[in-house]
Amino acid sequence: MAAIESAVGVINAVAIARRSPRLIGIALAAFDYVMDMQTERSDGTELFYARARYCMPPGQPVSMPSTWCGQM
């Protein structure tokens, strides 16, 4: 499994996914991505484009772990 950690990784997600036949999936490392984008975590709006960009290629999207705790 490959981790997508940056805006450049999001742009190249399809090429990364096709790089090796042994690769079974890709995951968005949300915290690293948000840091790369120099923004803050919210309700997930800041992740919408990244998730939509690479969940569209063939295959079933898998729910991703979350690092957001919100208010407890």
TrEMBL record:
Domain HpcH/HpaI aldolase/citrate lyase: 1-53
Coiled-coil residue spans: none
Gene Ontology MF term list: catalytic activity; metal ion binding
InterPro entries xrefs: Aldolase/citrate-lyase_domain, Pyrv/PenolPyrv_kinase-like_dom, Pyrv_kinase-like_dom_sf
Keywords, ordered alphabetically: Metal-binding
Pfam families noted in UniProt: HpcH_HpaI (PF03328)
Organism domain of life: Bacteria
Protein name: HpcH/HpaI aldolase/citrate lyase domain-containing protein
Organism this protein belongs to: Raoultella planticola
Lineage: Bacteria, Pseudomonadati, Pseudomonadota, Gammaproteobacteria, Enterobacterales
